[in-house]
Design brief:
With 252 residues, this protein is an alpha+beta fold. Helix content is 25%, strand content 30%.
C-alpha cells in the first residue's frame, strides 16, 4: 500500500470520527440516537408490579422500548431492578411513556400515558457523552411506580441519577387473572395470590406495619420538595469525594 492510499484511509477515519460517530451518540434520519436501555423501580415497603410499559420513541406513534414487566418490585425508590439487552444498540430517545401497573398494598391497577420532556432528556444524554464519550454518564432510562399512581422517570448511569418527570396515573379496573397471566378460578384464589405475594416480599414486621398504618399517599411527591442545606465536614480529614443519594431517587 503506497503512502497516498494510507493517507486517504487515515483522513477518512478521522473524518468519520469528527462527523458524529462518537461512542454513545450517533445520527439516524436526522434524529440523534444513543446507546441506552430501560429499567424499572418501586418503593421498598410497598410492592408494585408493572403489567406493561413502553418508552415511545420521538416521532413514532407506538414504536419504542419496552420496560421490563412482571415480578413484584420492592428494591427501593430510585433503585433500578432489571437490565434487559434488547433491540438495536443505538436508539432514539423517548418523548412519551405508556404504563400500566398494580399496587399490591392497595389491590389497585393504574394506567398512565405521559408526555416526557424530550429536550431535557436529550440535553442530559449529550452532556453525559461530552463528559465521557467512551463511557457516557447516562445509559439508562428508568420508570418508577408507587402507590396512589405516582410515576417518576429518571435518566441514570455511572453514579448519576437525574429525575426528569413526575406524574400521576389513573385508577383502572382490569381482570386480575388476565393481567397477571394467571387463570384464577375464584375470587378467593385471587385474594390468596395477592396476600401470598405480600408475604413473599415483605418481612413479617413490615407486613404488619403495612396492615396497621396503611399507605402514606403523597409521600413520593413530597420527596421532591427542595430545601436549603449543605454538608459540613467536622473532622480534620480532607474531603475529596462525596456521593449523595436523595429521597426522590436522584444521586450524584
Amino acid at each position: 500500500m503506497n503512502r497516498l492510499v494510507k493517507g486517504i484511509i487515515v483522513i477518512s477515519f478521522i473524518s468519520n470520527l469528527v462527523s458524529g460517530c462518537v461512542i454513545g451518540e450517533r445520527k439516524s434520519n436526522n434524529v440523534t440516537i444513543f446507546e441506552w436501555d430501560a429499567t424499572e423501580s418501586a418503593p421498598k415497603l410497598f410492592p408494585m408490579e408493572i403489567i406493561k410499559g413502553n418508552f415511545i420513541y420521538k416521532g413514532e406513534a407506538e414504536l419504542g422500548l419496552y420496560i421490563p414487566s412482571g415480578g413484584t418490585l420492592v428494591d427501593g425508590w430510585g433503585n433500578p431492578v432489571s437490565s434487559h439487552v434488547t433491540g438495536e444498540k443505538y436508539k432514539p430517545l423517548p418523548d412519551r411513556l405508556n404504563i400500566t401497573f398494580y399496587s399490591f398494598a392497595e389491590k389497585q391497577f393504574y394506567q398512565g400515558k405521559f408526555k416526557l420532556p424530550y429536550e431535557k432528556i436529550v440535553a442530559l444524554f449529550k452532556e453525559g457523552v461530552a463528559m465521557n464519550s467512551e463511557y457516557p454518564v447516562y445509559s439508562s432510562i428508568m420508570a418508577g411506580i408507587a402507590p396512589g399512581g405516582a410515576v417518576s422517570v429518571w435518566v441514570l448511569g455511572s453514579g448519576d441519577y437525574t429525575e426528569v418527570f413526575f406524574g400521576q396515573a389513573e385508577k383502572i379496573d382490569l381482570d386480575s387473572g388476565a393481567a397477571f397471566g394467571l387463570p384464577f378460578e375464584s375470587e378467593e384464589q385471587e385474594k390468596w395470590y395477592i396476600e401470598k405475594q405480600l408475604e413473599n416480599v415483605l418481612e413479617p414486621e413490615e407486613l404488619a406495619s403495612l396492615k396497621k398504618n396503611g399507605v402514606p399517599f403523597g409521600l413520593w411527591e413530597r420527596y421532591r420538595h427542595h430545601y436549603t442545606w449543605q454538608p459540613i465536614l467536622t473532622s480534620d480529614f480532607e474531603l475529596t469525594y462525596v456521593d449523595f443519594e436523595f429521597l426522590n431517587g436522584e444521586r450524584n
